[in-house]
Design a protein that fits this description.
Chain B: InterPro entries: ACP-like_sf, PP-bd_ACP. The complex is a heterodimer. By secondary structure, chain A is of the alpha+beta class. Helices cover about 30% and strands about 25% of the residues of chain A. The chains are: A alpha+beta, B mainly alpha.
Chain lengths: ~425, ~80
């Protein structure tokens, strides 16, 4: 039997609220299957299974606030039977004498002798008028004065998704109702365009707060030092143009992929930049789990993590990048997409300013900023030529490394940039 | 495919990629990526969608010829004929 615990989404998250169970006792899950929706300080995020097995117990109730690390469900491993003791427990939970108000004060036990109280998902009465819907959909529906029972859900199991609510709003059938029903004092919140809210599963206001908390902590605790260097990307661009020439659109490699790949490979030689600073001590990471900052159209940004970038082939990396970026933009990132990066890259993209100096995301100790690729005059072998260049910056934690170390790291990136074909052969 | 139908299709795909964009705010003669704040991944998805819907190929080397909606229509119409 394994515990599924309240996951941590960022170092400043202390607790989460379970807003939806997407499984019930007895359901079989495999790695990556959605289990629950957790409302965090950044908005609603789907928790996906890390292991295979069957759900043996749900330990928290919808709406319940749970500290990070506390078990929220029990998972029976494959072959393991869901014991009769479990069933007894389940029954006991629904008994009328259960005092749920005690639960929040109870000390977080490793394995609670008595599970903390689910009743809603398991009782017939509750299920009858329980309308499955995502948290973002609920929120928008409530804000717009729409009853969930009036909406036809198109999500898994008929769940109402944000798109369903949006669709209804777009038709205009209900917007006038909400305008007349809502007190004028709330007009300002009502006037937030549905589409802006609907951008993603993240709540823009909550996300602003979360970003604010993270960068404030970073600038308060981490003594940053900054380095910058302009690198010649002509060879890489040339190599990519050749590779992409006869390839169908979705198989083309974007410039960012080989850049992330070579940064990850360089990090293996500079382990003091790749890892976590916790309790006054730096612990290097063995793999490069690289967060790639993605700008959201509605505002804000998310940092989905690309796994083991140092070991990925370019094709695999590009696929991972496409999948995770699409989830980020749709607001459907899962916890496993965001969990525990060891390093971050932030980029301006190929339209915009020439350099960006990132703020380190604690407990990481460094971030690379990629500026917009551009043409510039450079001197090569004593001759003035026009080259394609990119300004690459490093912000790093001075408690862990010094400028000299960081400088060598940037030069290592430059060296690898001049042999782009190696990235496809390693 | 008629130019008008092509235009509608491209706008439809643009909105799939950037759901906050309204059909009537897609400019005909401005750089789409700047006007609609599309990143390179968004543009790649647009090119892929156009390919899927029309069978017409826009190689990467021609991206600079299709930056504006009108340009993209000219390019695709010429290619289809």
């Amino acid at each position: 039997m394994k515990e599924i615990t309240m996951p941590s989404f960022g170092s400043d998250m202390e607790q989460g609220v379970l807003t939806e169970w997407q499984v019930k006792v007895g359901d079989e899950v495999k790695r990556g299957d959605p289990i629950a929706v957790i409302e965090t300080h950044k908005g609603a995020i789907e928790l996906d299974a890390f292991d295979e097995g069957a759900i043996a117990q749900l330990l928290v109730q919808v709406g319940e606030q749970t500290p990070v690390g506390q078990p929220i469900a029990m998972l029976a491993e494959p072959g393991e039977e869901i014991t009769s003791a479990t069933t007894v427990d389940q029954k006991r939970e629904t008994a009328p004498d259960l005092d749920t108000s005690v639960a929040p004060d109870a000390p977080p036990a490793k394995v609670p002798a008595k599970p903390i109280a689910p009743r809603a998902p398991n009782t017939a009465v509750a299920t009858a008028d329980f309308q499955p819907a995502t948290p973002a959909a609920r929120k928008l529906a409530a804000k717009s004065g729409i009853l969930l029972s009036d909406i036809k859900g198109t999500g898994p199991g008929g769940a109402i998704t944000l798109v369903d609510v949006e669709g209804l709003l777009a038709i205009g059938g209900v917007s006038s109702v909400s305008a007349t029903d809502s007190p004028s004092s709330e007009k300002t919140t009502e006037s937030v365009p549905a589409k802006a809210v609907a951008q993603s599963g993240f709540d823009p206001a909550m996300m602003r707060e979360a970003i604010s908390a993270t960068v404030t902590r970073s600038k308060r605790e981490i003594p940053h030092y900054y380095l910058s260097h302009t690198l010649d990307i002509s060879k890489l661009e040339q190599h990519l143009a050749e590779r992409n020439a006869d390839v169908e659109p979705l198989k083309r490699t974007l410039l960012i992929a080989p850049l992330l790949s070579l940064i990850a490979r360089a990090l293996i030689k500079f382990p003091q930049l790749n890892g976590h600073y916790r309790d006054g001590q730096f612990v290097p990471s063995e793999v490069v789990d690289m967060a790639n900052a993605v700008n959201l159209r509605g505002g804000g940004l998310v940092m989905p993590v690309l796994r083991q970038v140092d070991k990925s082939s370019m094709e695999a990396l590009m696929q991972q990048l496409q999948a995770v970026t699409e989830r980020a933009k749709q607001g459907s990132l899962k916890f496993s997409d965001l969990d525990n990066p060891s390093f971050t890259v932030t980029s301006i993209g190929d339209r915009g300013v020439e350099s960006i100096l990132g703020v380190i995301y604690p407990p990481q100790v460094a971030i690379v900023g990629l500026g917009c690729p551009r043409s510039d005059v450079v001197v090569v072998d004593g001759e003035i030529t026009v080259s394609r260049v990119m300004t690459v910056t490093l912000s790093a934690d001075h408690r862990v490394t010094d400028g000299h170390y960081g400088s060598r790291f940037l030069m290592e990136i430059n060296k690898r940039l001049q042999k782009p074909e190696a990235l496809w052969n390693e | 495919m008629e130019r008008v139908a092509l235009r509608e299709m491209i706008i439809e795909e643009l909105i799939n990629i950037a759901p906050d964009v309204e059909a009537d705010e897609v400019p005909d003669d401005e750089d789409l990526r700047d006007a609609l704040d599309l990143d390179s991944m968004d543009f790649m998805r647009l090119v892929a969608a156009v390919h899927k819907r029309t069978g017409l190929e826009i190689p990467e080397a021609d991206y600079r010829k299709v930056l504006e909606l009108d340009q993209m229509l000219d390019y695709l119409v010429a290619k289809a004929s």
